[in-house]
Amino acid sequence: MQNGVMSGPRPFRDELIDHWATASGLAYRLVLNRDAADDVLQEAACRALRYESRFDERRAFRPWFLAIVRNVARDEARRRKHTCELPELTIDDAGLEGVVARDETASALREVARLRPAHRRALELKCRGLQYREIARELDIPIGTAQTFVHRARLRLRERLPD
């Protein structure tokens, strides 16, 4: 310390604390669930601390830490990937028309489950009757982004589902 000023890089944990709010917002936008975002952030912090010795102090901390958050969120999304399991139906259960209708419903549900989590959540909120302003507030994203997410989800479903 020279003249009351610390020389050298800032302590690693201080950097982590300074960027916690930004990382928390990113984690939530990626997984769209507060509890899952907290888990992602905690795991990202553990990884950052575990690999502290590999951090190049000549580089900015924020992009490095946010990349860890993104990677952990991707891992979490893979783990929590939604799948639809529907009971096997026979023609005796509902007649041929019922089986066809249920098969189409199962197909549609599988396609919805394949949407990106952010797009799926925005579409779900829109289907519940929320306005874009309300969707944006719920997901903590700009209104234009909410509109884009819903639009992309609808396009993807139109491309994949039969008329």
Structure description:
By secondary structure, the protein is mainly alpha-helical. It has 3 domains: 12-79, RNA polymerase sigma factor, region 2, helix turn helix motif (Rna Polymerase Sigma Factor, Chain: A); 82-114; 116-163. Helix content is 71%, strand content 0%. The chain has 8 helices and no strands. It has helices at 12-18, 20-31, 34-50, 61-79, 91-113, 117-127, 132-139, 143-160. α2 packs across α3. The longest helix is centred in the middle third of the chain and has 23 residues, at 91-113.
Count of alpha/pi helices: 8
Number of beta strands: 0
CATH architecture name of the largest domain: Orthogonal Bundle
Mean pLDDT: 76
Strand and helix order: HHHHHHHH
- Overall shape: it is elongated
Rg estimate, integer Å:
22 Å
Structural class: mainly alpha
Oligomeric category = single chain
**Low-confidence spans:** 1-8, 82-94
Count of discrete structural domains: 3
Sheet bearing the most strands, described?
A: none
CATH superfamily of the largest domain: RNA polymerase sigma factor, region 2, helix turn helix motif
**Helix fraction bin:** over 70%
Question: Can you tell me the CATH class of the largest domain?
Answer: Mainly Alpha
CATH topology of the largest domain: Rna Polymerase Sigma Factor, Chain: A
Distance between the termini: 71 Å
Estimated share of beta-strand residues: under 5%
Describe how the helices and strands are arranged.
Elements: H1 12-18, H2 20-31, H3 34-50, H4 61-79, H5 91-113, H6 117-127, H7 132-139, H8 143-160
Helix pairs in contact: 2-3, 2-4, 3-4, 6-7, 6-8, 7-8
